[in-house]
Write a structure and sequence with these properties.
The protein has two domains: 136 residues, serine acetyltransferase, domain 1 (Orthogonal Bundle); 120 residues, Hexapeptide repeat proteins (UDP N-Acetylglucosamine Acyltransferase, domain 1). 44% of the residues lie in helices and 14% in strands. The protein is globular, with a radius of gyration of 19 Å.
Length: 272
């Protein structure tokens, strides 16, 4: 029995790596040791630790952490794809964010990551007809983490939500795999239009800070959106757009700009 448990743990090297990082931090910073013990070291699986952390942040007097943790654990247990997405998101943060020095850092401290993973639970609830609880979670995610993501939106894996502050993602928005977006990005509608009314972001796209993408527009695979841009029309694949309103300012050399995280725009003098 003990051998089986050890094999199960060894099958998740990402989680074992996080535990090792946290154990080292607990030894270096004794004042944090009780927090790190309860947040990570007391748990056998990444899903258990994440459920604990999210519940502790999102709980209220009316919806206590214990009850919320049970709901989050239910979602993780019912849909293994959530756990796979969580791991892909963790790797995305570690690989793309220069401020992230270890896998344990986003798990413990990055609210953009927390907002995204809590949204995954809300999305699971919404899809099973538990819309009241999903909307409650949406509200709490917005209040606590600063990101307002509708539970009906569709979001892939390997996503970096850098910082998370001011991010808004509407009801019919779609974000495919391996996308990076920074703070104050809006994937919104254009007014009182109903139905399918929010942007569709294809794989590998990089969206700069403060960009506003409005309406049922399609941002093609491997495109880059410059910081502060307002996108009101489709964006061709592997192009760079910038401005208000956004226009094509160059072709993107990287296959997946989201992985490179290079927010610079083409030099207009380079082709002169």
């Amino acid at each position: 029995m003990g051998r089986a448990k050890r094999s199960a743990k060894a099958s998740d090297p990402l989680w074992e790596g996080i535990r090792a990082e946290v154990a080292a931090d607990a030894e270096r910073e004794p004042v944090l040791a009780p927090f790190l013990q309860g947040a990570v070291l007391d748990h056998e699986r990444l899903e258990d630790a994440l459920a604990h952390l999210l519940a502790a942040s999102l709980a209220t007097d009316a919806v206590p952490a214990r009850a919320l943790r049970a709901v989050i654990a239910e979602a993780f247990g019912a849909d293994p794809a959530i756990g796979a997405a969580v791991r892909a998101d963790l790797r995305a943060v570690r690989e793309r964010d220069p401020a992230c020095v270890a896998l344990a850092v986003p798990l413990l401290y990055f609210k953009g990551f927390h907002a995204l993973e809590a949204w995954r639970v809300a999305h699971w609830l919404f899809g099973r007809g538990r819309q009241a609880l999903a909307r409650w979670l949406q509200n709490r995610i917005s209040e606590v983490f600063g990101a307002d993501i509708h539970p009906a939106a569709r979001i892939g894996s390997g996503i970096l939500v850098d910082h998370g502050s001011g991010v808004v993602i509407g009801e019919t928005a779609v974000i495919e795999d391996d996308v990076s977006l920074l703070h104050e990005v809006t994937l919104g509608g254009t007014g009182k239009q109903t139905g399918d009314r929010h942007p569709k972001i294809r794989a590998g796209v990089l969206i700069g800070a403060g960009a506003k993408l409005l309406g049922n527009v399609v941002v093609g695979e491997g495109a880059k959106i410059g910081a502060g841009s307002v996108v009101l029309a489709d964006v061709p694949p592997h192009s760079t757009v910038a401005g208000v309103p956004a226009r094509v300012v160059g072709r993107e050399a990287a296959e997946k700009p989201a992985l490179e995280m290079d927010h610079r725009l083409p030099d207009p003098k380079a082709g002169a």
